[in-house]
Specification:
This protein is α+β, with helices and mostly antiparallel strands. It has three domains: 109 residues, Immunoglobulins (Immunoglobulin-like), CATH 2.60.40.10; 30 residues, no CATH class; 108 residues, no CATH class. The strands form three sheets. Strands 1, 3, 5, 6 and 7 form a five-stranded antiparallel beta sheet that branches. The protein has a three-stranded mixed beta sheet with strand order 2-11-8, with helices on one face. Strands 4-9-10 form a three-stranded antiparallel beta sheet, with no helix packed on it. Strand 6 and strand 7 form a beta hairpin. The radius of gyration is 33 Å and the shape is extended. The chain starts with a helix and ends with a helix.
Length: 344
Amino acid sequence: MGKKPFLYHFSAILILLIIIGTASPNDVSAQDFSVSASTDSTLMFIGGQMDLTLEVAQPADINVAFPQFTDTITRNIEIVEQSEPDTSDLGNNRISVRQIYRITSFDSGLHYIPPIEFELASAELEARKKSKPIGLMVVNPFEEVDPQKGITDIKAPINTPFRFSELYRFLPWILGGLAVILLIAAGIYFYVKRKNPIAALLKEKPKEPAHVIALRELDHIKEKKLWQKGHIKAFYSDLTDVLRRYLEERYGIPAPEQITSEIMTSLRQVDLPDEKVADRLKQILELADLVKFAKMEPLPDENDLSLMNAYFFVNQTKYEEPKTTEEQAKEMKENSQQWLVSSG
């Protein structure tokens, strides 16, 4: 009688070991994959192009099938070109597979990219996961587009030959202006030649650093309180203009002539102190696009966040000239004097 309980326990343990030993390791790892779909921006001009990136993070020993598209993502969103899947190692026997689709749209309005489904390519296992949906605003910057008119020829330039007689009425002004310029040049020459103290005033003032100008302009925007008075579009126009001029002066990026996606692409070539810095700028530019082109009205907290992110971006990316040896020595002397006074 005493051996039966032992046989029962032994049989149960043996059955459990057999189940564990025969179970496929893919049963666990098959569910261990995540998918995502993202675009460069949530705003695009009609006929413009941007990237739709599909990415899967998965164990190296399973195969996840990407969705197959022909020439469109949806009825209003077309595929221009697509890249081959690119695989990178994440460590711990995990990989990341990424595929990029270049997309465009010729229909203005708010378009919806539905969740994109990825399927585990295995005969024994069935697993599917979907990405999050994406909203894409396509803006038409043209006042009127009539496809029925077709393409028209460029008008030839009007032939208007130049006549010197047309300058006669401007001749007194031209001569007077030349005389004033000559007098000013002669005065400057004689003052500088005689080493007059006023010559020091003629020296060009040193150019202010880009961050000093940007922070001063941000303070001015903060004082005007535009969005608090209902001028939300003017607030974001002023805010983005300051940041675009700062990017041009600080990094040489032609930001005033670029759209949001082009600015973010240019920033990838810049050595930023932190990835979060670029995210702060992206939040401002994308929200400003929605306000200016889609007539969106952000919440007060979003407006405050945009101004705060602008200050953060400038302060984190500002460049300060290194101090000279004399300035460093003077600063050390002042610090030592303060230390002696405080310790005495």
